[in-house]
Structure formats: structure tokens, C-alpha cells
TrEMBL record:
Its main location: cytoplasm. GO terms for cellular component: cytoplasm; nucleus. It is found in: Cytoplasm; Nucleus. Residues 1-36, 237-273 are annotated as: Disordered. It comes from Columba livia. Keywords: Cytoplasm, Nucleus, Repeat, WD repeat. Residues 22-31 have a biased composition (Polar residues). Residues 246-264 have a biased composition (Acidic residues). CDD domains: WD40. InterPro entries: WD40/YVTN_repeat-like_dom_sf, WD40_PAC1, WD40_repeat_CS, WD40_repeat_dom_sf, WD40_rpt. WD repeats lie at residues 152-194, 195-226, 278-319, 320-361, 364-404. This is WD repeat-containing protein 37.
Length: 495
């Protein structure tokens, strides 16, 4: 009768263990499914304050999580058994190769190499199995906190800038490459005023702090100040745009863009000329803003200068020079006579006009590409965004280095900060809009699918935190502006 070798006996023993364990797994799997079904029945029978749709979604997601982790547990057991078998095989080879015993260090090296490969396989399997569930859960949460409320369609070209009036009635303003600026009813989404005084792209729009007056900057090398009088239409009940967002995020083509004709601006009152035109630049005026009080305005231009004007007389008060390349943006402090200008020279500069007899300049260096915008926040902070895919938070008392840096996956355009809650809204070249706090913690990403969200580069964001319907607005080169409702308490709680 032939005698079994030690290796054959161990192989047969391992096979029997595998067979018995497989039966055990099947029994465990069956009992776990029955238990999961009983738990679901018990949960569904309990009283809950959650809406049924949300409750069903949560139950389904948790069921998927349980099934995936059960599968991972089974795969983990199988991998551990393979590791044990491999170690036994290596140990056997160590006793028989060339009749000499391998050193303990050599055995340990071989076993360690094989074990690391299997461990990597386990990690990869875990990530692949759970990523879909985690992604769907995050998407559901994001849509519950950030909801699309209204779309503003009427421009015939991309929208560069967006702003919200600071006086009653509160209207939304957009500046477009189609040479117009439009004012919108936030509630109805209808255009209430069209400004057609420029002969070039309108690059920015800002509202006077106390009057119904707007300031626009243009590619025609001028900035215009014009007065508007609006009568807001009565809001009509509209369908909830968020109900259309059931699909996963997908890539959208330019064919899905809104119609260029846009009935929203075809029948609204038109303003054809300004009260005042500011004309001292030798290049495109890319941005403009009001100083505190509204008696002076500042403009930023591709001629590498920023100009400070007296609004009543249209006279040039100061020409701010020092940037080495074209300016990209300018912003004023809400309560102090401070101005910050951004440039393609990778810097932004702080100009101090609090002392009428002298104005000081501070240069902030830290970005490696064009600074697309820099804005003030409450206190002594400035937030800057750049084409280098970063956003930096600075303390005006310490210019040497930022106090926080946010790294993203796409160039950042004109940012805006929710002053009361200190939340930064980042518009990206890749069509995304992300929300961060001032310490650099990511809070949310606005949902984007084949039926909602921007389809091309997002150019600008604007907060209006006190508005009951929409508290965040975005605009992009897909020729539309969007109003969002951000549940800020829930957003900060998720943090």
C-alpha cells in the first residue's frame, strides 16, 4: 500500500477544510440574509419622523452596505486560508530543496512578499466594492443639503459675473460676453431689466450699497454707472427642480446648453445708456467695485492698472500701478476703505485708502499661477483663488504665508465668501462648485447631473445668505445662472 507524502496529506487536509468551511459560509450567508430581512421588517414597522422616500433610501443603502461587507468578510477568510496554505507550502519547500534547510530569514522574506501581494489584493477589492455605495450615499446627502431652486436663462453668450443687490427690491445681476447686463427677479427667474450701453463684453456687475444703481465693467475699455427702476413680478408656483436630479452625475455635451435666444430677456425694459462713463483705461476693464459709502469706485484693467474714481464727477482720483501683468479682479472691503487687486503676475495687492493723504500697498505672494480673484471676509482675512488650483486664506496682519490652503483638482475662478457663516464657494473650470470653510475643510459639492447644474466652466459665485428662497448663485459659460438653496445649519452639522 503506497504511503502518502507529507505534502499530499497536508493538501488533502486543506481541501477538506475548504469544503467544510464553504458549507459553513453558505449556511451563514443564508442565516444573515434572513436576519437582515427580519431587521428590515422591524424597522419598517417602527414609527419614524423621516419621510418615507428618505427612509426607504436609507434602508436600501444600509442593506447594500451590509451585503458588501459580508462578501468582503467571506473573501477575507478565503484570502487568509490561501495565505496559510502558501506558508505551509513554503515551509515544506524549505525542508526539501537540495536537502538543505533554508534559513529562517529567507523563508520570512518569501512569505512576506506573497502576503503583501494578497493584502494589496484585499485592499483593492475592498475599495472597489465600497466606493459605489459611499459615492451614492454622499450624492444623496449633498442633494438634500444643496438644492437647485431656479435657473436664469436669457443671455446669448457666457456669463462672466453675478451679483445680488444690496437694497430693496433685491434683484440678481448678471454680466455677459453678449455685451449686456441683465437684472432678474430671484423668485420668478424672469428678466426685469436689460442694460445694453456697452459695445464690448460686460465682465462684471456690482450694485450700489444704498441706491438702485449698478456699476458694470466692459471690454470696451470703460466702466458704466447706470440707474435702474424695477417692478418685480408676482411669483408663480413652479415645479421643484430637485425632483429631476435622480440620475447619477454624467458628462454633458454642449448640445444640452440653453437656447441662445432666451425668452427671459426678450420683453423686459431696456436701458440704453449710462449716467456716467469712466474712461481712463487703455485696455479691457475686467472688473469694478464700489468703495464703502458708494461715493467712489475702483476699476481693474488689462492695462496693468487699477483706477480709483470720484463717482459724482467721474474724475480719476488715483491710478494704482505696480502689477507686472494684466489685472484679473478687484474687490473692496465692506466697511473700510481697502481695495484688493488680483493679477496674472501670480500676486494680489492690498491698497489702503483709510488715510486720505497717503495710500499704502502690500503685496501678497504665494500662488504659482494667475490669481483669478481675492476677496475680503469678516475681520482681517482675505481669500484668494488661482489658476494653480489652490485657494489660500490670509491674515492681513501676516502677509508672509497663508493661514490655510485649499488644494483642488481644477483652476479656481471668481470666489465668494458667505460673510456670516464664513463659507467659501469655489467655482471651477471643470464645471464643479465646491464649498469649504475658512480652515480649509470641504463641506459639500453642488450636485451636477445631466438635468441640472452647469454644463461648462463655472465663472463666478455670489452669496445672499438672508434670502429665503436662494442663498447662493452661480453663473457659467453655458449662458445660464443658477439659484441654489443651501441648508447651512445642516451643512455645518455634517462637518
Amino acid at each position: 500500500m503506497p504511503i502518502e507524502s507529507g505534502s499530499c496529506a497536508s493538501a488533502r487536509q486543506a481541501k477538506q477544510k475548504r469544503k467544510s468551511h464553504s458549507l459553513s459560509i453558505r449556511r451563514t450567508n443564508s442565516s444573515e440574509q434572513e436576519r437582515a430581512g427580519l431587521q428590515r421588517d422591524m424597522l419598517e414597522g417602527q414609527d419614524s419622523k423621516l419621510p418615507s422616500s428618505v427612509r426607504n433610501t436609507l434602508l436600501e443603502l444600509f442593506g447594500q452596505i451590509e451585503r458588501e461587507f459580508e462578501n468582503l468578510y467571506i473573501e477575507n477568510l478565503e484570502l487568509r486560508r490561501e495565505i496559510d496554505t502558501l506558508n505551509e507550502r513554503l515551509a515544506g519547500e524549505g525542508q526539501t530543496i537540495d536537502g538543505a534547510e533554508l534559513s529562517k530569514g529567507q523563508l520570512k522574506t518569501k512569505a512576506s512578499h506573497s502576503t503583501s501581494q494578497l493584502s494589496q489584493k484585499l485592499k483593492t477589492t475592498y475599495k472597489a466594492s465600497t466606493s459605489k455605495i459611499v459615492s451614492s450615499f454622499k450624492t444623496t446627502t449633498s442633494r438634500a443639503i444643496c438644492q437647485l431652486v431656479k435657473e436664469y436663462v436669457g443671455h446669448r453668450d457666457g456669463i462672466w459675473d453675478i451679483s445680488v443687490a444690496r437694497t430693496q427690491p433685491v434683484v440678481l445681476g448678471t454680466a455677459s460676453a453678449d455685451h449686456t447686463a441683465l437684472l432678474w427677479s430671484i423668485e420668478t427667474g424672469k428678466c426685469v431689466t436689460k442694460y445694453v450701453g456697452h459695445v464690448g463684453s460686460v465682465n462684471s456687475v456690482k450694485f450700489h450699497p444704498t441706491e438702485q444703481v449698478a456699476l458694470t465693467a466692459s471690454g470696451d475699455q470703460t466702466a458704466h454707472i447706470w440707474r435702474y427702476i424695477v417692478q418685480l413680478p408676482t411669483p408663480q408656483p413652479t415645479a421643484d427642480c430637485n425632483q429631476m436630479s435622480g440620475e447619477d452625475e454624467v458628462e454633458c455635451s454642449d448640445k444640452d446648453e440653453p437656447d441662445g435666444d432666451g425668452e427671459g430677456s426678450s420683453d423686459c425694459p431696456t436701458i440704453r445708456g449710462p449716467l456716467t462713463s469712466l474712461k481712463s483705461h487703455q485696455g479691457v476693464v475686467i472688473a469694478a467695485d464700489w468703495l464703502v459709502g458708494g461715493k467712489q469706485a475702483v476699476t481693474a484693467s488689462w492695462d496693468r492698472t487699477a483706477n480709483l474714481y470720484d463717482v459724482e464727477t467721474s474724475e480719476l482720483v488715483h491710478s494704482l500701478t505696480g502689477h507686472d501683468q494684466e489685472l484679473t479682479h478687484c474687490c473692496t472691503h465692506p466697511t473700510q476703505r481697502l481695495v484688493v487687486t488680483s493679477s496674472r503676475d501670480t500676486t494680489f495687492r492690498l491698497w489702503d485708502f483709510r488715510d486720505p493723504s497717503i495710500h499704502s500697498v502690500n503685496v501678497f505672494q504665494g500662488h504659482t499661477d494667475t490669481v483669478t480673484s481675492a476677496v475680503f471676509t469678516v475681520g482681517d482675512n482675505v481669500v484668494s483663488g488661482s489658476d494653480d488650483r489652490t485657494v489660500k486664506v490670509w491674515d492681513l496682519k501676516n502677509m508672509r504665508s497663508p493661514i490655510a490652503t485649499i488644494r483642488t483638482d481644477s483652476a479656481v475662478n471668481r470666489i465668494n465668501v458667505c460673510v456670516g457663516q464664513r463659507i467659501i464657494a469655489l467655482p471651477h473650470d471643470n464645471r464643479q462648485v465646491r464649498l469649504f470653510d475658512m480652515s480649509g475643510v470641504r463641506l459639500a459639492r453642488l450636485p451636477r447631473s445631466n438635468r441640472q447644474g452647469h454644463r461648462r466652466m463655472v465663472c463666478c459665485t455670489a452669496w445672499c445668505e438672508d434670502h429665503p428662497i436662494c442663498n447662493l448663485f452661480t453663473c457659467g459659460f453655458d449662458r445660464q445662472a443658477i439659484g441654489w438653496n443651501i441648508n447651512i445649519p445642516a451643512l455645518l452639522q455634517e462637518k
